[in-house]
Specification:
The structure is a homotetramer.
Chain A (H helix, E strand, L loop, with lengths): L1 H7 L5 H17 L14 H7 L1 H26 L6 H14 L3 H13 L2 H31 L12 H25 L2 H17 L29
């Protein structure tokens, strides 16, 4: 019974979902650690706080980015029935790269504060690389699911994850393009794209899928988290 | 079947609740990171520890504030059956603003230590703005639920969340008023209001609703967290 | 129906348990943040690492203490069927004081490094106060449960939590006594008691209750976490 | 009825699993705290970032290590039906040692930056000790389960955990050998072994067991996390 044998190498996604949620929650909260009382001379607090505006912008951008990633992660797992070894590592790859996001965020905020143009270019290039890596880790994740339709729930269209791949690939390209534009033209160009990209992904997120055709009665009754019934 | 179609864009609140709990738990614990061994000359530890009293007060105030927010968040989700895209973002907005709370808390504690009156005014104004933003994010959240009664559980009175809005709006006004009073009169006035406001919300919290009329048998049997059965 | 009315003010302990677990997990992990690469001259790393022994001891002691607290917390909630407002705040009180533990731990480690006797006395006194506050918060928690036997599961002996109170009260007394001994005799006396107390509580923990008489078939079948069935 | 009595001292692994997941998620995320904007002269950011390569390597190695530990932890708990006091402490021992991992990781990264050979030897020796301790804590955990087959689920082969012990023991030996080689030969030798060991454990992980013989229908239907039904 090959089916039976293959099933023995699988596991329920419950713990992977809980583990991912914890990591994303921690990473999204680490962003706020950069918001500290500024070192200022007595009476200069207001000036110092206003001078920290790049940090506030960076917080808003990275928070939105990670929120969108969480929604996409949630949307994907709503459709996953079981996980094999490859899918576990693909998910761990997503978590490893998203945990990096606060780092280039802090580097951009730091260079915006010191104001050296060369450093600002390096900073946006670093952010672009991390952003592209994150999209690439989603590409690997979606590709694995597209190649293993038996991991998805029965009621999910087999081509669903194959059709998710282009969105991830576009992200890789756009982040790299933003980085190149930031270095060749001006870091601000890259920063604007970094702010727009999560908005784009947020608006096109399949977290709340409008296509009931391949979901039947909707995901409202099969996304119950840890104890989600396996399709069929 | 419009109902069916609309349901396909919805999802179970299970993962949103777990994600929110993790973020609130991390934020409430970050407060304690400001409690560090003080830098003191040998033999001066006691003096240094006693001199840190504004930090202790700030810890107590912000912990209470976040605890009340968690209870209110819990109370709201007890009544939510499913989430749509707007409600997910409204919830992410609450999480983004509450994650800011440790920051003005640390700024107030820092200025209380250095003792510059101008800086203290700036610090209470910052706290007031963050406090008002947090109440505003709850106002958006409650308004979305009031406009979409189909997201709440069947046994919940349709006007429940409409009636929650004034409490959030009063919070916005009171935090802003406290900030203005802190700047125009004295920062201590603002600090006292900041300490009293969470107490007010704690006492009027609907986490443990005393009005069984529109809850039937109470929330004790329908708040089972992730796997909570959807009303009806 | 007074029973019905009172039930409407209650809620399932599921989210409180998950929230507590997250906070305790974060606090226990914050301890490790004090283990950093020591600042040492080139070639002096070994000496510097060995010189950090008070930090290692403090890590071991506080980790054990928090682990025991988690086991006791788990043991208590295994017996709780529903929570009212008072019990929620009693639990939040436990979490607020246990979140303080890394702070006096770091202060003790810091003074052990600098070696000023007066400072060491202050440090053990601070640890004693926090330890006593934590036991006191458990005393409040157990007392509330003893006064409200309807909050416990039906199969739990009504006197269970009343009989838990003396253990908490002994903790308050012993921590305060250790602090006094540390100040009047020598800080080392206090430190030894701080190391022994968690061991005592660990060994007498009711997390794995040996008295099946008032538990019937044991807690193995009614401690299923969030979705635990309410007794009866 | 000795069976009944012994059961009263047991508890469901649900909360232990959730608590472990939270701690591992926090520890794996703490690694990223070492990735900070480097202190660099204006215009020197690129050089400074490239100079941090040991930190990036250390992040990758420790992340992989902790990911493998999480997969092994998950694989073990899939087979555990209930926990007794000894197993709770064995699990807390695993968590205590894995929480240490970011510390020697940071020490190695720090010494790689300063480049003193003596310090590098001390750093790899420290990493080797922590790695060996972690394998040893798994050895204790597996041994406890091997001695108490009644704690495992009914469908799990009684000799399963006995056969897991050699893998843990090999880890203890290999980490210590790597440390000795790092001190006697060159720290790089140790670093290479540290990078290879998690890969070895990842590849041989039983998280996705290929031997259906002693698992019957596979673990896909009995690893439902917190609410997992106890075998039989």
């Amino acid at each position: 019974m090959p089916k039976q044998e293959s099933k023995a190498t699988r596991s329920d996604p419950g713990r992977a979902v809980a583990f991912s949620d914890a990591i994303i929650a921690i990473v999204i909260t680490l962003l706020v650690l950069d918001l500290r009382p500024p070192e200022a001379e007595p009476g200069e607090l207001l000036t110092a706080l206003l001078g920290e505006w790049p940090t506030y912008l960076a917080y808003a951008a990275s928070y939105t980015y990670l929120a969108v990633i969480w929604l996409n992660h949630k949307a994907a797992f709503t459709r996953i029935g079981e996980m094999d070894r490859g899918l576990q590592w693909a998910n761990l790859g997503i978590l490893a790269t998203l945990a990096l996001v606060p780092w280039p965020t802090a580097v951009i905020a730091e260079t915006a504060r010191t104001g050296n143009l060369e450093d600002e270019k390096v900073a946006v290039a670093l952010y672009a690389i991390v952003g592209a890596l994150l999209c690439m880790s989603f590409l690997v994740f979606f590709s694995h699911l597209a190649r293993h339709p038996d991991l998805t729930k029965e009621e999910v269209d087999d081509s669903y994850f194959a059709r998710e791949r282009p969105r991830a690939l576009i992200g890789v390209v756009l982040y790299l393009a933003a980085g190149v534009a930031g270095v060749l033209i001006h870091p601000l160009v890259a920063s604007v794209i970094f702010l727009l990209l999560p908005a784009f992904y947020g608006l096109t997120s399949h977290g709340f899928d409008q296509r009931p055709a391949f979901l039947g009665g909707g995901d409202s009754d099969n996304s119950g988290g840890d104890g989600a019934p396996k399709g069929g």
